[in-house]
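[job 4471] stage=fold_predict status=RUNNING
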Amino acid sequence: MFPQIKKIKTRVNAIKGAKPVVEFFIHEQKSWNEEVVLDFSRSGMALFTLDTDDKEDPYIFFGALQKTEDGCNPDTNWDFMINGAGNIICFNNDCKSPQNISVRLTLIQRGDDDFKNAIVSADPMIKNRPT
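[job 4471] inference complete, writing structure tokens
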């Protein structure tokens, strides 16, 4: 079985006077949201494309963090890989029951060496439902 591939359009929305927020484009609703749910069965690949605001410094993906709903690490049946740029997440699941994983994307401004300036995004929930 080939992995499912989902492309998610992402942007950094800098609201005047507030901290920038990462948003995801929800195709079904044709709107931007701070959270997106991606359903996969067994294996999949999520490709996050970043749309930057021309008025702001461009951002780059720095990486991603993962956790389960209860805050623990995913079970050992997960094979979870993030590419070097951090914008492609690949995973495979051999588990016998569904498991939800929350993935946080981390963004930094291009050319900024101070990681304290990183933006931690909303959670795109990845729900893997084995078939």
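[job 4471] summary: The chain has a mean pLDDT of 76.
[job 4471] exit 0
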